[in-house]
Specification:
Strand content: 5-15%
Number of helices: 5
Distance between the termini: 44 Å
Radius of gyration: 18 Å
Structural class: alpha/beta
CATH class: Alpha Beta
CATH superfamily: P-loop containing nucleotide triphosphate hydrolases
Strand order of the largest sheet: 3-2-4-5-1-6
Helix content: 25-40%
CATH architecture: 3-Layer(aba) Sandwich
Shape: globular
Number of domains: 1
Order of helices and strands: EHEHEHEHHEE
Number of strands: 6
CATH topology: Rossmann fold
């Protein structure tokens, strides 16, 4: 009676992580909305992919933190401990246009540099064979199976990266690369017909509305 259930009804167990390659990656995902969980969902998918031995890399744009966030990020510690998962933080203190003491020109320059770095990784993936396993400790410049570009859609919202450039970026990716983009409280209409998955993470209530600031272990 378990023939049609995963693993024939057996309880899943943890197995050692060995380099592997996905059979059916290649979608572009866009996660946007005014609710909490866009980055969390993307990083969770990265963890799931890494657990199968796939090579995953995260580029975080626009995310340098605020005075309510400590310099130590829980997700970075976890990523560093997980084989096949790596990250680059390409932001700095504060948020663009929020009058938080940070310089908007710095945000603009770092967003542009972060997007250029994303282009470099995608270009490297075009030269790599994404149907084969990668060294779990190898550099992203030798190819990855999943690339997460966190807050890229927010950078488009702030007019720091053009929507046309993002569409061109998506269309330039190799067929087998799973590309995950996050950010933006506004609908990325420019990705309609371009992205394979678009998820709107909506806010119903949020602790911030009650004056509860970022909490260690949930927001960072």
């Amino acid at each position: 009676m378990h023939d049609r259930t995963p693993a024939g009804g057996e309880t899943p167990t943890a197995e050692p992580i060995e380099p592997s390659a996905p059979d059916d990656f290649g979608c572009t995902q866009a996660w946007w909305g005014d609710g909490k969980g866009k980055t969390t969902a993307a990083l969770g998918m990265g963890m799931r992919a890494a657990g199968h031995g796939y090579r995953v890399h995260v580029l975080q744009l626009m995310k340098g933190g605020a005075d309510s966030v400590e310099s130590t990020r829980g997700e970075y510690n976890a990523i560093a401990a997980l084989p096949g998962y790596s990250y680059e933080n390409l932001g700095h203190y504060g948020w663009h246009a929020l009058n938080d003491g940070s310089d908007d020109r710095d945000h603009e320059a770092e967003a542009a540099a972060g997007f250029e770095r994303a282009r470099e990784v995608v270009a490297a993936c075009r030269e790599a064979d994404l149907t084969t396993p990668f060294d779990l400790d190898g550099p992203a410049d030798e190819g990855v199976h999943m690339l997460i570009v966190d807050e890229l859609l927010y950078a488009v919202d702030r007019d720091l990266v053009s929507s046309d450039a993002v569409v061109e970026f998506v269309e330039s990716k190799p067929e087998s690369l799973e590309l995950v983009l996050t950010g933006s409280h506004s609908s990325p209409a420019y990705l309609e017909g371009v992205a394979d998955l678009v998820s709107n993470v909506r806010k119903v209530t949020h602790p911030f509305d009650a004056g509860i600031r970022a909490r260690r272990g949930t927001e960072y």
